[in-house]
Design goal:
Length: 167
């Protein structure tokens, strides 16, 4: 007798606040820092106006909630910084970036039967998401960190703002 084993993958569900959640692969969340020190960078857009220094690296820090909804991420208790790792190309070196989080990342297991459509009320995920799954009856986009940190994300904010005016 052979039992069919359901294949699952580990992921981190990231809460950016304001009802914005997304997931990354388990190997893409390198570290989580509580109460890190941020340094403001003048003349930069408000969603990416800070850096953090960690292990002799200067990390850009994105506020995804501010980027997509125009509202700053407010952590529930103390500031939380997720340090993500990504590659533009598998043959290229790793890059690191910071993400403001509202809560600690949640480790989940995801199976193929959880696949679903992107949340219709959050169209800004389309250029960033590689897939989407349902978790606790919520559609969670799986984001491509390389796209988030390397493409012109300012256009996402303009599109999100235009969509909010149209509703």
């Amino acid at each position: 007798m052979s039992e069919e084993v359901e294949k699952s993958s580990r992921a981190w569900v990231l809460n950016f606040g304001e009802g914005i959640q997304a997931a990354v692969g388990h190997h893409e969340m390198w570290q989580v820092l509580i109460s890190p020190k941020f340094f403001n960078i003048p003349c930069t857009p408000p969603y990416c106006c800070e850096v953090a220094v960690f292990q002799n690296r200067i990390l850009p820090v994105l506020d995804v909630s501010h980027l997509l909804e125009g509202k700053k991420t407010i952590p529930i208790m103390t500031p939380i910084l997720g340090i993500a790792v990504y590659q533009n190309d598998p043959a290229q070196p790793l890059h690191y970036g910071g993400l403001h989080l509202a809560t600690m990342p949640q480790s989940v297991y995801v199976t193929d039967d959880q696949v679903c459509d992107l949340p219709a009320h959050q169209p800004y995920w389309e250029p960033l998401a590689i897939s989407c799954f349902s978790h606790d009856e919520i559609a969670i986009p799986i984001i491509n960190l390389a796209s988030l940190f390397t493409q012109n994300v300012g256009s996402l904010q303009q599109n999100a703002n235009a969509d909010s005016y149209n509703h």
